[in-house]
Amino acid sequence: MNYCNSRSTCTSNSTLPYLILSFCLKRACTYQPCQQHQFTCQNGRCINKAYFCDGDNDCGDESDELEHLCVTPEATCDPHYFTCDNGNCIEMAKVCDRIDDCHDNSDEKGCGINECNDPSISNCDHICTDIQTSFYCSCRPGYRLMSNKRSCDDIDECSETPSICSQMCENTVGSYICKCAPGYIREPDGRSCRQNSNISPYLIFSNRYYLRNLTTDGRLYSLILQGLRNVVALDFDRVEKRLYWIDVDRKVIERMFFNGTNKETIISDGVPNGEGIAVDWVGRYASCYFSVQLVSSSGQIYWTDWAQQAYIGRVGMDGKNKTVIISAKLEWPNGLTIDYTNDKLYWADAHLNYIEYIIIMWCAVRHSNAESALFFC
After folding, report:
1. Which of the given ranges, 44-58, 103-117, 166-180, 272-286, has the highest pLDDT on average?
2. Which of 13, 51, 208, 261 has most Cβ atoms within 10 angstroms of its Cβ?
3. H-run or E-run covering 253
4. Are 134 and 160 contacting, i.e. CB atoms less than 8 angstroms apart?
5. What are the LDL-receptor class B repeat spans here (predicted)?
6. Is residue 10 very low, low, confident or very high in pLDDT (cuts 50, 70, 90)?
């Protein structure tokens, strides 16, 4: 059982937020297994293997930089010398000179033979390179060399590097193709997508007590709603033109049409410390697979809560079917947003310093998207 090296659960009734007092107990945590391309930290976090032994404390507990793990093997011989099978080092000029300079004949075996000309010897899938006493195999771009040092296997760039395309990624043999959602066109770089319309964007924001609308050029600034208590999270349903928000003082989730009509409460209790909200307006007609049962969905609202046990919750737009979907490995979840194109729900944890996402249709599997230091989002 791992333990969270994070926020403690205190028995004190102190009103000071996030104050760690003397009588605190650490909560036990169970973490999801790390994926094949990730390194498992001692604290249970998963980081990309590319960050292992790179000089930075990516795990947060320095377990990815332990001295006994980050040992660079000393070169047996100088780069300009030949390494004999018995460990001796000789000058490269003495290789294949018909003299046993290594004293095990390893500097003379294979000389004058191009193994690459005989596929029965080299048996390289893609590229064979002849060297003085031997040969080596390599692969074309988009493939990796397998453990037998001869075979090449396709790299699934879409799975191993999720950010390689800005929207949709399709893996092909030896490569990949970036695609854009309807209404977007692909940029010349082949990876980015931009909107193919003349719609003028605008910004809707809250300042605790009111909701306002601002054009991105700053010219038009208008009031949408006032008289609120403490709004900390806000999102917009494009289909029904509704605004959704969390009022953390009243511990409720509310909504209203963008024109200011029909203000109503969706959840009247059970949101003690709401922090972020995201409305899945695309998925209102989607389905979610649960234990061999197909459950229809009429659109969902997701929110994060910094309660004593932090969680990410979900509820229907009609206020029904409220449930907790993520509760493990969470401390200060915020920055909640939905990637509608790829059907992903993203969040950041400002305490554990990571960004993760789930694929909404799968409803459970978590993926680490970035392992970099974060502050409040």
Report:
1. 166-180
2. 51
3. strand 252-257
4. no
5. 241-283, 299-342
6. very low
What span, in angstroms and rounded, lies between the C-alpha atoms of 236 and 240?
9
Rounded to an integer, what distance in angstroms lies between the CA atom of residue 164 and that of residue 166? 7
Residue 273 CA to residue 247 CA, distance in Å, equals 9
pLDDT at res. 72 = 61
Tell me the three state secondary structure of residue 172.
strand
Cβ contact 110:133 at 8 Å: yes
Residue 252's H or E segment, with its range, is strand 252-257
Q: Please name which of 94, 117, 93, 118 lies closest in space to residue 105, comparing C-alpha atoms.
A: 94
Q: Which pair of tokens denotes residue 103? A: 């004293």
Q: Which two tokens stand for residue 199?
A: 């719609």
Q: Which of 22-31, 210-219, 266-275, 305-314 is predicted with the least confidence, judged by mean pLDDT?
A: 22-31
State both tokens at 342: 């790829």
CA distance 304 to 330: 10
Reference 235, options 343, 318, 337, 350; nearest CA is 337
Contact 270, 328 (CB under 8 A): no
Q: Using CA atoms, how far apart are residues 81 and 90, in angstroms rounded to an integer? A: 6
Separation of alpha carbons 96 and 110, rounded Å: 9
Cα 19 → chain centroid:
30
